[in-house]
Structure formats: C-alpha cells, structure tokens
Amino acid sequence: MLPADKQAAASLAIENSEKQLAIAEAELARSLGYKLCHCQFPPTIMLAVGYADPRRDVKGQVYECSKFGYDTAAPWAFTRTKPVSAE
Ligand SMILES: [Zn+2]
Asked: So which domain of life are we looking at (predicted)?
C-alpha cells in the first residue's frame, strides 16, 4: 500500500496514460478511416452497426457511438446487423 500522496500521484499518472492511449487509439482509428464521434474528448470511435435503407438520404453503412448510442441514421432508417452495445 502506497502513502496517500504517492497514491494520488500514481492515480493521476494512470489517468493521464489512459487519456494518451485513448487519443492514440482515436488517431489510429481516424487514419484507418473510422468515423469519430465528438461527444467527448478524446473522441469515441464509431463502429458500423447496420446498413441504411436505400430509399433514405443516408446510404451504405450506419455508424454508432459506443458511449452514447448516437447513430449516423435515424433508428427507423436502417437495418441493424449488430446488437445494441451494452457499454
Ligand atoms: Zn458519441
């Protein structure tokens, strides 16, 4: 067990490392062509969850933010091929 001041410093170092990792992941995802949701910083990587109804304005794959569930198409305008994320 660490003393309280060292414990706080260790917690802060871990928190900063996690943020840097999330930024690196977002940069990698962006370079690979993934969409990023701007609901928080570092940004959340959006994953494909289905395909759009071809009669709608949005075409092709539909992407979803895993944090807050924002979809790039309205819920009734696409066919979901991946279960709703539980994150
Ligand atoms: Zn989001």
From this structure: Bacteria
